[in-house]
Amino acid sequence: MLTTVxxxxxxxxxxxxxxxxxxxxxxxRGGSRSRRQDLHREVHRCDCANLMVMGLExxxxxxxTCGWQKHxxxxxxxxxxxxxRIRDLxxxxxxxxxxxxxxxxxxxxxxxTTEEPVVVTENLAQxxxxxxxxxxASSRSGGxxxxxxxxxxxxxxxxxxxxxxxxxxxxxxxxxxxxxxxxDAMAELLNSFRFDAVLAAVKxxxxxxLIGAHLTHQLAQHVLVAxxxxxxxxxxxxxxxxxxxxxxxxxTARLASAPTPYSRAGVTAAIRYYTDxxxxxxxxxxxxxxxxxxxxxxxxxAVDERDAGTTTS
Length: 313
What we know:
This protein is an alpha+beta fold. The chain is 47% helix and 15% strand. The chain contains 10 helices and 9 strands. The protein has helices at 14-23, 33-45, 48-53, 68-81, 117-131, 182-205, 209-235, 251-255, 264-285, 294-305; strands spanning 3-5, 11-13, 59-60, 63-64, 86-92, 108-114, 135-142, 146-153, 158-164. The strands form 3 sheets. Strands 5-6-9-8-7 form a 5-stranded mixed sheet, with helices on one face. β3 and β4 (63-64) form a beta hairpin. Residues 1-31 and 39-61 have low confidence and may be disordered.
């Protein structure tokens, strides 16, 4: 049976603690009434920090209470200090510095310096799941030199863990918010948009509106990502605690006017709308973007001219 050790130094049986905290009872097989009472008293003697690290703190509206980030960071720092592969572990985002911007909705962002980003991050994620709280959902991105795991724990604490090799091999961590080249990201986005747009148009031509509509909805996502990249560039960071403060946030309302892609004509109309919208954003990105979408527009005209009763070939 799993035993969790808290930073305060006391070891508690996690299964029994879960029963006490969540059910108000604990079934100690073969144990006496006094043993169960002792276990209850042991839990109540546990200080707030211990409970918060274990994810068993008092909750407000189903969310962990404010302050869990600080206590969890201390636990993670102590754990990292025992791993020789980790050169440095530090918070960034709202939890960095004095952490005055942390609230109930904040996650805990971590930056780790290591020569083995993937292995170290995955090992840490496993330890968090085993020792603190099971993982409810996760996502992974990056590669061998910079790797990110985003965790949502079952107790609704959220962590973003990014590990990177030293930028100059002297232990200096890559600066937060500079993962990748933004220009390359926009070029890749344009390529993905065109690919999805062409495929959506072809599916519409073959009366496969199901897939065509699905792909057309992805075009809206590409447009929103383009607006996000522009916001990042203006702000000099990709970390935004709140939205609605820049002109780029207003682009969500513009997309509300897009045609609905639930017919063949709707798919082509929506593709045109999103293409025009992306071209406008690209002009803001680069006044001379050299963006020529004529092949896509020719394809859309061919789809629109196609007789609905014509067989595919």
